[in-house]
Each structure stands twice: as structure tokens, then as C-alpha cells.
Amino acid sequence: MTNEKINRINELAKKAKSAEGLTDAEAEERAALRLEYLADVRRNLKAQLDNIEIVD
């Protein structure tokens, strides 16, 4: 995930906490970006776990 997308997630999070709130389109965008972010986190974690070698 690019830094631009992460920054956009953060912008939307700040806006959601403000009195202004999010529009319906922004809420949908935030949900899509969150799903993409979570998929990246899961993929990276799986890659790390796959590369672990247990040595006795």
C-alpha cells in the first residue's frame, strides 16, 4: 500500500472524528481503503510466518 493511500486513510479518520463527519462517498472510500490495508497486513504477516525456520 502506498503512502498516499495511508495518508488518505488518516485524513478520513480525522474528518470522521470532527464535527463535520464523513459523506456517504467518503465512508465507502474509507471502508475500501481499510479492506485493502488489512489485506496487505495479512499478506505481509503470512510471508513473515512462512519464512520462519524453527531450529532445535
Q: Are there runs of 5+ residues with pLDDT below 50, and where? A: none
**At the first level of CATH, what is the class?**
Mainly Alpha
Instruction: Please count the beta strands (DSSP E, at least 2 residues each).
Output: 0
What distance lies between the first and last C-alpha atoms, to the nearest angstrom?
36 Å
**Order of SSEs:** HH
Q: What CATH architecture label applies?
A: Orthogonal Bundle
How many alpha or pi helices? 2
Structural notes for this entry:
This protein is mostly helical and 56 residues long. It has a single domain, classed as Helix Hairpins. The chain is built from two helices and no strands. Helix 1 packs across helix 2. The longest helix has 27 residues. The termini are far apart. The mean pLDDT is 94.
Features of this protein?
56 residues, mainly alpha, Helix Hairpins, 2 helices, elongated
Chain-wise SSE layout:
Elements: H1 3-17, H2 24-50
Helix pairs in contact: 1-2
TL;DR of this structure?
By secondary structure, this protein is an all-alpha fold.
